[in-house]
Design brief:
Radius of gyration: 25 Å
Helix content: 25-40%
Strand content: 15-25%
Largest sheet: 7 strands, mixed
Number of helices: 9
Order of helices and strands: HEEHHHEEEEHEHEHEHEEH
């Protein structure tokens, strides 16, 4: 199934410009044997559904080993070192304080929730901006460092009436000793804005059909939907995809617990069902569709969307389905609650 799905996705990009065509790779359970996307590259990795048990590890590893993330990490380390040296010289902290350890933890939390750009966003617990209106000139703004109970003015800028300023541009250090630090902050902010970000989609796939006997026309339809609505929807995205057949009767036996069952526990709403056809389904069948899916007992009672992809060649038997949903990827920004697992991972 993975190879057939790969070919369908490749066909969807057949007419795309060269720079817009993703690199597609098939992997087994071990998700460490791949080359991370280059700057500006789109990568799609197809894996068996059972590998989604480790989905948070896969996505977080990719996020923090991306070329742009490595560059950002190095520049942040340089900035922390310079800022710490200045704080020590100005007697704000002691030389043996755990300040650098604490601030690095804070930065890691921000990056996991709002990305690299969030580290330099005022109001994040590290930086803040105050503004004062000067009627004859414009807005006078001050950039402050506010971590660990400190509130230190680092730089100022004047924004004339009618002028727009991007990010942290045009800030000037309040003291010559702060100039390298402010240049580092402003330069880092500019590099994040101008970054050509890569993107990566982990697609965890499983087939419940005998001998993976899904018609190619249905796989092509599903691939079209994935390319248009799912792939690269965020910088690092994880998605499950399960192919199966809607069985006769109103109640069926659920799949016995196995690795795929546990992997599907990472599904997060909204859930979507893509049908090959609804020709042989009654209205009540559609409304009660979840009871007829040969899936583990998931909580599909809310945010379930049914999408029909008519295919006249598939109208003779019981309709096929593709169940798809986001997989929790280990980032705080996509989390609905805090749990011990999230903290550990």
């Amino acid at each position: 199934m993975l190879e057939r799905l790969k070919q369908s996705i490749v066909q969807r990009y057949a007419s795309s410009p060269k720079g817009k065509v993703p690199r597609i790779q098939i992997l087994d359970e071990d998700c460490t044997d791949f080359e991370p996307p280059k700057v500006g590259e789109k990568l799609i990795v197809l894996l068996p559904l059972s590998a989604a048990i480790s989905a948070p590890f896969h996505s977080r590893r990719t996020h923090y080993t991306a070329p742009e993330a490595n560059d950002f990490s190095q520049r942040i380390d340089d900035l922390i070192r310079d800022l710490q040296a200045w704080l020590v010289s100005e007697k704000y902290i002691e030389n043996d304080d755990f300040w650098s350890y604490d601030v690095r933890n804070k930065i890691a939390q921000i990056r996991s929730s709002t990305g690299d750009a969030g580290v330099l966003r005022p109001g994040n617990g590290l930086l803040s901006i105050t503004s004062e209106l000067i009627s004859s000139k414009g807005h006078k703004e001050s950039l402050h460092f506010c971590f660990g109970g400190m509130d230190i003015m680092l730089a100022k800028r004047l924004i004339p009436h009618g002028k727009a300023v991007n990010g942290l541009d045009d800030f000037i250090a309040t003291h010559q000793s702060l100039t390298p630090i402010i240049e580092g902050i402003v330069g880092l902010s500019l590099s994040v804005r101008q970054r050509r970000s890569s993107s990566m989609t982990f697609l965890y796939v499983h087939s419940l059909l005998e001998k993976e006997n899904a018609p190619q026309s249905f796989i092509d339809q599903v691939a079209r939907h994935l390319v248009g609505e799912v792939i690269a929807k965020t910088k690092v995205h994880s998605q499950c995809l399960v192919f199966g057949q809607i069985l006769p009767g109103s109640e069926i036996e659920h799949i016995l617990p196995n690795l795929e069952t546990f992997a599907l526990k990472r599904c997060t709403p909204p859930f979507e069902l893509i049908l090959s056809s609804t020709t042989n389904l009654e209205i009540d069948d559609v409304l009660d569709l979840c009871k007829r899916l040969h899936l583990p007992p998931l909580s599909l009672k809310f945010e379930t969307q049914v999408s029909e992809l008519e295919d006249s060649s598939l109208n003779q038997g019981e309709p096929l389905f593709a169940f798809t949903s986001s997989i929790w990827s280990g980032f705080w920004s996509t989390s609905r609650e805090i749990s011990g697992e999230q903290i550990i991972i």
